[in-house]
């Protein structure tokens, strides 16, 4: 299945019952709610239908001639094609032993006949939502694992190049940028799994027991934090809690401190008037607790999306940086995009004490070899960070002068001594300790600049070293 929780797809349901009246009732009920329904009157036909076109959910009777519901479920769970399909048993049997047997066979839920329409719909919607959430989480996890594998393959391709010399200094930072969102995903999945394990069976019953007004209040609370566009600081949360606590106390409601804390965590604003009927309800604490648990699931799902996007951004930057097109043809490219790719790879180092200042003009694309230009920015940025011992201000200015694009990279490091500044572009010249540099970085940078018919210059005094690269927009 490849479903998205935000699209209009309701679900494909297979209904299995040997009683025609039950089939007609369930088909009519579910079809009216927008589900696609396939009715079958026997266990044999159910197995054939499920394997031929796997549904999203199966409603399964137990007492049927031939193969009974338990046997059908066991066969479904033993087949790779159908083992993940959730099965809800619907039966007139109300014995605890039979219910246990149904869950042992692989069922996810059990509804006793004669059933309530609202109960069937609530349980169907709940299990389909859980199923789709699990599918999307699995897909996100597989996508992240795939990008991590691509990262490893890309690093292997770079091992013999000069790029890898600079990239080797970044591996720890890149690993951190990948591991941080991976840890967030792992934690969020744990939260979601814990919620489903502890609350899944009770949730439909909880919703059924709520009055229509309390149901509306319950879902309004869940919708409120999703509409929030900004996060509050710790100080702002404390101020909001104090304001809410005072309002709750003014209404004569007990446990004002605890209730205010829960409302703040749920993202409720500073006005409790819309929720006063709920807060005065005798079952208020149970309702708020369930709302907060579901809100935590929503928040975990949002965390997974954010973490996946963050990891994908780092991987995309690395892939863009690592790509090498050796076809001998120049292409039009945006210089700022290449520079930002390099900054993404160095993002972790900027967090450690480097202030990054950007001045970008409105620039045209440049005719160039973009992969080679990325090597220029990598070397110059890497050298600047080392010169500052990763503490200071790195300023980059990109603007147009006549028919050229000018890029200047300035650091606040100790500077280059006058006696060696004329030698820094010579091959194998380096002031770095053994093993830290080959002495080829700036030589390669100069050759790439000259290949583009450009100029590179350097000026340096203590606390200010500036490399300036001027490249023609339309070099041949």
TrEMBL record:
Q: Which domain of life is it from?
A: Bacteria
Record field: transmembrane = none
Coiled-coil regions, chain positions: 134-161
UniProt domain Response regulatory: residue ranges: 12-128
Q: Which reaction does it catalyse?
A: ATP + protein L-histidine = ADP + protein N-phospho-L-histidine
Query: Record keywords: Coiled coil included?
Result: yes
- Identify the Pfam families for this entry: HATPase_c, Response_reg
InterPro entries in the cross-refs: CheY-like_superfamily, HATPase_C_sf, HATPase_dom, His_kinase_dom, HisK_dim/P_dom, HisK_dim/P_sf, Sig_transdc_His_kin-like_C, Sig_transdc_resp-reg_receiver
EC number(s) reported in the record: 2.7.13.3
Q: What positions are modified (4-aspartylphosphate)? A: 61
The Histidine kinase domain sits at 302-475
Q: Which UniProt keywords apply?
A: Coiled coil, Kinase, Phosphoprotein, Transferase, Two-component regulatory system
MF-aspect GO terms: phosphorelay sensor kinase activity
The protein in question is named: histidine kinase
Species assigned in the record: Limnofasciculus baicalensis BBK-W-15
């Amino acid at each position: 299945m490849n479903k998205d929780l935000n699209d209009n797809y309701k679900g494909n349901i297979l209904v299995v019952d040997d009683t025609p009246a039950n089939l007609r009732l369930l088909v009519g009920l579910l079809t009216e709610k927008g589900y696609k329904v396939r009715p079958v009157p026997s266990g044999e036909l159910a197995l054939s239908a499920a394997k031929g076109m796997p549904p999203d959910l199966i409603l399964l009777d137990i007492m049927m001639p031939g193969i009974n519901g338990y046997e059908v479920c066991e066969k479904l769970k033993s087949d790779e094609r159908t083992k993940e399909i959730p099965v809800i048993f619907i039966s007139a049997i109300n014995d605890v032993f039979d219910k246990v047997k149904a869950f042992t066979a692989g069922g996810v839920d059990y509804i006793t006949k004669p059933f309530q329409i609202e109960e069937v719909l609530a349980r169907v919607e709940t299990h389909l939502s859980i199923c789709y959430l699990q599918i999307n989480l699995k897909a996100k996890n597989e996508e992240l694992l795939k990008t991590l594998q691509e990262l490893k393959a890309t690093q292997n391709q770079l091992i013999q190049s000069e790029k890898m010399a600079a990239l080797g200094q970044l591996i720890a930072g890149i690993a951190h940028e990948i591991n941080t969102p991976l840890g967030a995903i792992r934690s969020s999945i744990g939260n979601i799994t814990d919620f489903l394990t502890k609350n899944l069976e009770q949730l439909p019953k909880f919703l059924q027991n709520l009055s229509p007004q309390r149901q509306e209040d319950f879902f309004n609370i869940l919708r409120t934090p999703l509409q929030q566009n900004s996060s509050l600081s710790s100080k702002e949360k404390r101020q909001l809690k104090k304001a809410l606590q005072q309002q709750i106390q003014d209404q004569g409601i007990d446990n004002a401190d605890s209730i205010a804390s829960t409302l703040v965590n749920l993202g409720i604003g500073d006005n409790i008037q819309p929720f006063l009927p709920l807060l005065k309800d005798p079952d208020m604490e149970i309702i708020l607790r369930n709302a907060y648990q579901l809100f935590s699931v929503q928040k975990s799902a949002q965390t997974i999306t954010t973490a996946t996007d963050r990891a994908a951004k780092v991987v995309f930057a690395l892939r863009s940086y690592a790509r090498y097109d050796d076809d001998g043809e120049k292409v039009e490219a945006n210089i700022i995009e290449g520079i930002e790719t390099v900054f993404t790879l160095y993002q972790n180092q900027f967090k450690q004490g480097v202030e990054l200042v950007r001045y970008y003009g409105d620039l045209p694309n440049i005719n160039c070899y973009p992969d080679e230009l990325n090597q220029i920015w990598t070397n110059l940025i890497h050298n600047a960070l080392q010169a500052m011992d990763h503490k200071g201000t790195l300023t980059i200015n990109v603007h147009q002068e006549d028919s050229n694009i000018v890029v200047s990279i300035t650091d606040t490091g100790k500077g280059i001594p006058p006696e060696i500044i004329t030698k820094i572009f010579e091959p194998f010249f380096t002031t770095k300790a053994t093993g830290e540099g080959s002495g080829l970085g700036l030589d390669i940078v100069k050759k790439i600049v000259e290949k583009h018919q450009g100029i590179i210059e350097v000026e340096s005094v203590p606390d200010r070293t500036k490399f300036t690269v001027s490249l023609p927009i339309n070099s041949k």
